[in-house]
């Protein structure tokens, strides 16, 4: 099998390298499916040179022209949707349906922020001085570094790049090494739609060999990061001493509450994609389910039946509902977390291991897993597993449920299922999370919904919606004396 190389975008040109990094398909990791350039520190510095030049031109480009480029790129993603989705499945492992949804949402981000680019961002202000008018305007920051993860390898770069470009910034994108093809599809769509040279540059290669060149360039004006807490906290400290704006979206231990008056069948049906979609590899995935004790047994029975019909397999098989995890190392980490939970006293209701058989032997699979008898002292209660693992635990009413939702260092997303409007509003007010849902999933927030968590789940800057533009712009105040 010939492994195809994929070039990367630098200064408006598609380039290779002397050395390459292999990319693997998590359904069968025996042989690579792609090679990407292993760039050098010098290559990265050249990208920042290009971004500096690109920013000087792009910031002066008409907002209407920026919008045209972004709408054009969205159209190209939609035209290429089948190819893009197939490549997402190949490098990430999620199902084809999930990948198609991701590609469509990436196009939505480009279209939404193309509309935002056409709007004026600022306002007029009164001035106490006679004959004076004042106001403020928002303007771009400069060169933005975007570091993106492997779990949503196209959607997350689009979520970050669309508002950054709409505001007039240039960008250097570092996609996850496991999933570079998806980000490259976004870069190619923008390039083919007419994005000027240098406005977007894509770094590929081994992060350990590039980190200093990537992170220490003095031209970085802002960094937007999605990934693990360990890496995110390191970045926060690294940029804290510099005048670099920092945005982070990190971990979650998202909880869903099911009260006794809820529609149990609807709640269970909603929890299946929320907990096991993308094999649980979503920052907003439901990982803890708190069920009012009066209906705990019945709800667990319903949920077990829903999990039993899930079909594990390769993402390109249309019958598959849960694909593999992204890599063998990540699979092993998830299995280790389950094993540790069992040693600490948890009970495996279903799943709990890697499936066996010819279909699974060379892939990165973990069976959808429900854990019960989990206490709040166990590691699995507190640590983000990031796999198809859901804890189900009984609680005695809304008070205890809210306490346990908030019993976490994270605060990303939470949900409650209830017919009681008063309970719903109380949950919205008291759940210490950036995203709160009632009778729907912890995941699935749309492009215009401000998105981001509290506490260890992220930084004060939100992504998505109009809030994202606050991060990618600075405010300049002006005053005009019209009598002079």
Task: Please give the largest β-sheet.
Answer: 7 strands, mixed
- What is the subunit arrangement here? single chain
Tally of DSSP helical segments: 15
Poorly predicted spans = none
Can you count the beta strands? 22
C-alpha-based Rg, rounded: 23 Å
**Residues in helices, as a percent range:** 25-40%
**Global structural class:** alpha/beta
Strand content: 15-25%
**What's the N-to-C terminus distance?**
75 Å
Order of strands, widest sheet: 15-16-17-14-13-19-20
Mean pLDDT: 96
What general form does the structure show?
Answer: globular
How does this structure look, described?
The chain has 15 helices and 22 strands. It is an alpha/beta fold. The strands form six sheets. It has a seven-stranded mixed beta sheet, sandwiched between helices. A five-stranded parallel beta sheet has the order 10-9-8-11-12, with helices on both faces. A three-stranded mixed beta sheet has the order 1-5-4. α3 packs across α4, α4 packs parallel to α5 and α9 packs across α10. The longest helix is centred in the first third of the chain and has 22 residues. The radius of gyration is 23 Å and the shape is globular. The termini are far apart. The model has no long low-confidence stretch (mean pLDDT 96).
